[in-house]
Write a structure and sequence with these properties.
about 290 residues, alpha/beta, 6-stranded mixed β-sheet, 7 helices, globular
């Protein structure tokens, strides 16, 4: 195989950051990179992502792209930090502009936030592709969790699915964020599962029940057999019913407000105020 994948687990947010590289060219992409964030202190650090970057350097790789599967609501991205350090291009699905417009209103951003996706370098439409050397990465729109979610299909063998799917014993992501839709997510999952039983799906998160070890990847075949929400034994109507009832009982993610304000800016903070400090808002009684 002409490419390699390595996954790094961020314990505090149960998030995987993935490293994908083309062996011949040594070009690589960092997918869904995490920034450490102490919400009590309002302080970010780069310990986790610096370990990834040190690994990249040790292996003699060149970061060409930083790729986001969506605007995450459970962790802050370190995409802007990586771009500043390495000159990498930031990539996200083209539908991010819709997410920016929605949350610009929720956070009352006004002219402080551009809603044209220009914080990112490359906006990929469904079916568009990028290359690391000769390794082809195709964007697949997989909305449902959010309207702008995208998965990245590598040579029809590996897929970075973001929050489109979780491990079989965890199931699926919530669909109650603005613009989310359970039926749309079910359809997106079926599109992923149609890629072939041997295709490997790389998770964005894992929340292992019981004493199971954390896992970063699973085959399509295992998802079809065993996924407790969207396996072959579950109909679309069953999924919509289950997901709607389950989402109504879920609490908001711990870091949703800081995450979204930073992530729709590709990892930058809001402009500093007159004292030189950036501030994040909490919209009262809106969720």
């Amino acid at each position: 195989m002409s490419y390699r994948i390595k996954s790094y687990f961020h314990q505090d947010t149960s998030t995987f950051t993935h490293l994908l590289w083309d062996v011949e060219s040594s070009e690589c992409a960092v997918i869904d990179p995490v920034m450490d964030f102490d919400s009590k202190a309002g302080r970010t650090t780069t310990v986790f992502i610096d370990e990834v970057l040190a690994d990249v350097q040790e292996q003699g790789l060149f970061i060409k792209y930083v790729m986001e599967t969506h605007a995450h609501a459970d962790h802050l991205t370190s995409a802007a930090y990586i771009r500043e350090k390495t000159g990498a291009k930031l990539v996200i699905g083209a539908r991010i502009t819709g997410i920016q417009k929605v949350f610009s209103g929720i956070f009352n951003e006004g002219s402080a936030l551009r809603v044209d996706g220009s914080q990112f370098d490359i906006l990929l439409d469904d079916g568009e592709a990028l290359f690391l050397g000769d390794t082809r990465i195709q964007s697949m729109a997989t909305p449902g969790h959010t309207p702008a979610c995208a998965s990245y299909v590598v040579e029809q063998r590996d897929v970075f699915v973001g929050d489109t799917l979780f491990m079989p014993d965890v199931g699926s992501a919530r669909c109650d964020f603005p613009g989310g839709d359970a039926g749309t997510l079910y359809d997106s999952v079926q599109r992923v599962l149609a890629l072939g039983d041997d295709v490997v799906l790389h998770m964005c998160h894992d929340y292992p029940p019981g004493k199971r070890d954390v896992r970063s990847a699973v085959t399509v075949a295992e998802q079809r057999r065993n996924n407790i929400h969207v396996g072959d034994q579950h109909s679309r109507d069953d999924f919509i019913r289950m997901r709607t009832e389950r989402d109504a009982e879920l609490e908001m993610p711990r870091l949703i407000f800081p995450s979204l304000q930073v992530n729709i800016r590709a990892g930058d903070f809001p402009e500093p105020e007159s004292n030189g400090v950036s501030y994040l808002k909490i919209p009262m009684n809106q969720f």
